[in-house]
Each structure stands twice: as C-alpha cells, then as structure tokens.
Amino acid sequence: MKRLLPDTFTLLLVGAVLLASLLPISGEPAQWFGIATNVAIALLFFLHGARLSTDVVIAGFLHWRLQLFILVTTFVVFPLLGLGLGLFSPWLIDQPIYLGLLFLCVLPSTVQSSIAFTSIAGGNVPAAICAASTSNILGIFLTPALVALLFSTGGQAGISFDMIWKIMLQLFLPFVAGQVLQPFIGNWIRSKKTLLNPFDRGSILMVVYLAFSEAVTEGIWQKLAIGDLALLILIDSLLLAVVLVITSVGGKLLGFNREDRITAVFCGSKKSLASGVPMASVIFAGQSIGAIVLPLMLFHQIQLMVCAWLARVYAERKKGLEASAVQAS
Question: In which region does residue 155 sit, left (phi positive, over 0), alpha (psi from -120 to 50) or beta (all else)?
Fold first, then answer.
C-alpha cells in the first residue's frame, strides 16, 4: 500500500504548483528567476552527460533488436497514440490540454525509475541502462523534431532557428560537455548521487513553479475544472495501460526472453519528467507551459505507482518459477 502513496518529489511538485497558485511570481522578479532557471537546466543536462558511462551505451547496443523495439515504442508508437487522442479534441479534450498530452507522447523514457523497476522485476538491467540512456540522448533531438512535425500538423507553430539554438545552447552543449568530462569526473558525480539529487530535483521544481506562475497569471484554474483534471487522469491511465500491453505482447511476438520482455515493458512505457519539464521551457519559451506540463506531471505519478506494483508482480513470479525449478530438480 505504501508503494501507491506519492513519493517525496511528487509532493514537492504539488507544493510548487500550490505555491505558484497562491504566490505567483511575475514582472522583473520572474525575469531574473527565469534566468536562474535556465542556468539550472543547463547544469542539469551537464550532470546527465557526466553521469552516463559511454561503455554502458556501447555494450547495450549489441542487443540492437531490443533497443530498437523500445525506441520505436517511445518515439513512434507513443506519438501515434497522441495523434489518435486528437480525434477527441476539442469537443472532449481542451486544446491546451491536448497539446500537453501530445508533448508527453514525444518525450524520451525515464532513466532512474526504468532501471530500478527493471532490476526489481528481474529484467535485463544492462539493456535497461542502455535503452534509457539512449532514449534521453536521442530525445534531445527527436523530441523537438516531433514537436515541430506534429504540432505544425495541428496548426501550431513549428520549429524555428531560435528554438534550435536554444536547445543546442541549453541542453545539447552542456550534455556534450558532461560526456567529454565524464572520464575525469563521472565516478565522482555518480558517487555523490545523494548530494546532487536535490539539485536535479530543485531545477525541475524551479521550472514547474515558473511555468505555473505564468499559467496562474493567465487564469489556468479558471479555465480548468475538476472534471477536466479527472478526465486527464483517466486519459493518462489509459495511455499507460495501452503501452504496457503493447510492450508486453510485442516482446512475446518478437521472441524476447523473460528478462528482455521486462526491460521492454519498463523502458518503453515511461516518460521522463526530468527531461520533459526543462525541454518544455525551452521549446515553448515565451508561451504559457503550465497546461503543457500538467499531463506529464500526472503521468509521472501514475507510471510510478503502476510500475511499482507491476515490478513486484514480476518479482513474485520469478520467485515462483525458481521454486518450481528447484522442486523439479
């Protein structure tokens, strides 16, 4: 039951939204806070690059069929499902919320939770490390490209040179700098995970607070009713359920063993809050992104609760299989 309760970070996210709702930042203070947030995002992606071992990625690519299946699920299947949701907009789903759902669908997978749940469930951990890491590296390019393609198809503004430059300057170049320095500082940064985690989470909280401050100023809570939130939670839940089924059944059809199927389920079904919120602030700079990141924030908690339960189910099944094998021998 404790696994189904919100984690500390989720409670902090809710706190950031409440703070923005009661005390939104605006004017010149918001401008300075925005600059500080941009610097924090750049440092966040630098740390991502510095943590990631190049050897792990190279080793994981040897299992290319599994990696390709996960990437296709993340960057093809999910976006197609997002486009399918467009059939219900705007008569069922308001346009700003739909854009948030579509943005959710083009994001890369998570890193930490994908690997953690794969490990708990008894899956292929090295492949999970590679899949999650590769997803986030490619996501720096694929997410903006998919936003340009899908959002322009829906009548929204496409990608611009200014957006490309901001992505390069704020996301990609810090990540590359981290990778370049990884052989020298990678072990130290990985050993200081407990010390640096507050910075990771703090930068995301800064983006969320700034985003919802702008949204509150523009009247998001007057436009968004309780019924809309309930519908959004339902859509997020159904979206996760559909992808869990696709990854599970698809893994069997492709002949993957049990460990690889588990990896596909946990790495292919998730979306990264850590990458998504900073990306939204860059890609949609100058726009109100409160409604855009709201579906992602809800999906984040839903995927943690569901996958925590699912990982325990897989772990119990593994114990049962091992017990049966011992009795048979």
Answer: left
pLDDT value for 329: 61
Tokens coding 38: 């941009």
Rounded Cα distance, 192 and 42, in Å: 19
Give the per-residue pLDDT at 317: 86
The yes-or-no verdict on residue 156 having pLDDT over 80 is no
Q: How far apart are CA 295 and CA 313, in angstroms?
A: 27
pLDDT tens for each residue of 233-287: 999 999 999 999 999 999 999 999 999 999 999 999 999 887 888 888 888 877 7
Could you tell me how far CA 311 lies from the centroid of its own chain? 18
Strands in the chain per DSSP E = none
Domain ranges (residues) in the chain: 2-316
Most confident segment among 1-5, 65-69, 180-184, 303-307: 65-69
Residue 295 identity: P
- DSSP 8-state assignment for residue 75: I
d(CA 52, CA 277): 20
Structure tokens at 69: 């299946």
Residues 6+ apart with CB under 8 A from 13: 204, 205, 208, 297, 300
Q: Is the peptide bond before 90 cis (omega within 30 degrees of 0)?
A: yes
Helices of type H across 52-124: 54-60, 64-72, 78-85, 95-105, 112-121
Fold of 2-316: Na+/H+ antiporter like fold (1.20.1530)
